[in-house]
Predict the structure.
Amino acid sequence: MKAAEAQAFEAGGIAPWIMALRPKTLTAAFVPVVVATALVKADGHPVLWWVSIFALLSSAFIQIGTNLVNDAVDFKKGADTEKRIGPQRVTQSGLLTAKQVMVGGMFCFFVALCLGIPLVIQGGWPIVGIGLVSLFLGYAYTGGPFPLAYKGLGDLFVILFFGLIAVMGTYFLHTQVITIGSAVAGLQVGFLATVLIAINNLRDAPQDALVNKKTLAVRFGVGFARAEILFLVFSPFLLGLYWIAQGRLYAALLPLGAIFLARRVVVGVFRNAPSPIYNKFLAMAAGLQLLFGLVLAVAFWIR
């Protein structure tokens, strides 16, 4: 961190909290709701904008809460130290205490719960189940007796929550039904969200191994992790074949405009050993998910 930036953060205030929220990752909460809302319109259902707004805010606060709990727990378990090569974490760097960050995470989960009340009224008991499971998994990602990220299940969590559950849940809130199309769109979005976790885990594998954080990269090695990233990056494009079968050529073809960025992410990961340069690929992966998701949403919107 540059000296001027360090002084700003050391001065306290809101700056460390903004850093702790990891705003660049929040596209993972934004994209599924946008895609699902556009698919609702494409399928001929009325769009309930208040539903999309509450779903987006609730999802965002769950993600922020997860980020904060992850920050505090990784520091306590020794996964984040001064040797970290990824983006700086506020607890590890002493900008905030682990207790402050954990309390912030719990507060975000509470806000998400409150924002979910109108959605429960709209969607009924299925949304109660989805909401409670999402909150529990948000904490259990790194916290609790069975932390998902430490057992190699973090990737699955992201596919489910930031993909299938987010898209299918938003679609259900509008339509009261679940469709194969909403599941396919959920997988497309979820796979690209998981690319961020996969790159992060590959970059941090040596440090994670020291603290028994058994991510997939730690369990199966660099070769497997790179193959996983390759699969996650290009599978959403292959799933476009489903939309061709459904006669929705825009949904299959327009997202191909993002394939140049997908190639850059994969080539970068394959050509470079895990190192600080992976932070660049992480940012590119976030951009890829955002670009793909927005273009897919536009394709649904214009049908």
